[in-house]
Amino acid sequence: MLKHGKAVFPSMTAEQRAAFEVAVAEEMDARLENVAAAKEVAPRLLEEAEFRVDVVRRLRAAREAAGISLAELASRTGVQKSALSRLENSQSPNPTLATLRRYADAVGVDLLVAIGDEGGKSR
Questions:
Q1: 3-class DSSP assignment, residue 116
Q2: Are the C-beta atoms of 56 and 88 separated by less than 8 Å?
Q3: How far apart are CA 123 and CA 116, in angstroms?
Q4: Positive or negative, the Cα torsion across 65, 66, 71, 77?
Q5: Where are the alpha helices (DSSP H) in the chain?
Q6: Does residue 121 lie in a domain region?
Q7: What is the pLDDT of residues 18-46, one digit of tens each?
Q8: Residue 49, in any domain of the structure
Q9: pTM check: above 0.85
Q10: Is-contact 63 107, C-beta < 8 A?
Q11: CATH of the domain at 77
């Protein structure tokens, strides 16, 4: 038995130790690959989150301009007041298009969706 602090590990043969070291090295390589992948996708995810926050901010501004309370909005949309509050306070990070559309309809604004290619051409 091998002791390290309070932990006790079974003794390993040279072959077991070599296999263990290979497994540790593979795990470290996988972690580095995950970090690299996260760094690559993070800017896109941030942009998407900022877009969703902006859409909800605009809807909230329209609600407030129309003098509609959250309770009234809940009644008009069929969405719970608590869910609408979480949506407006960015605690519901991924609202559905249907929810956004019901919200927009309830406050009297249009929710427009454009689909385009990478060149910026809408379809």
A1: strand
A2: yes
A3: 6
A4: negative
A5: 14-65, 70-77, 81-88, 97-107
A6: no
A7: 888 899 899 999 999 989 888 998 988 88
A8: yes
A9: no
A10: yes
A11: 1.10.260.40
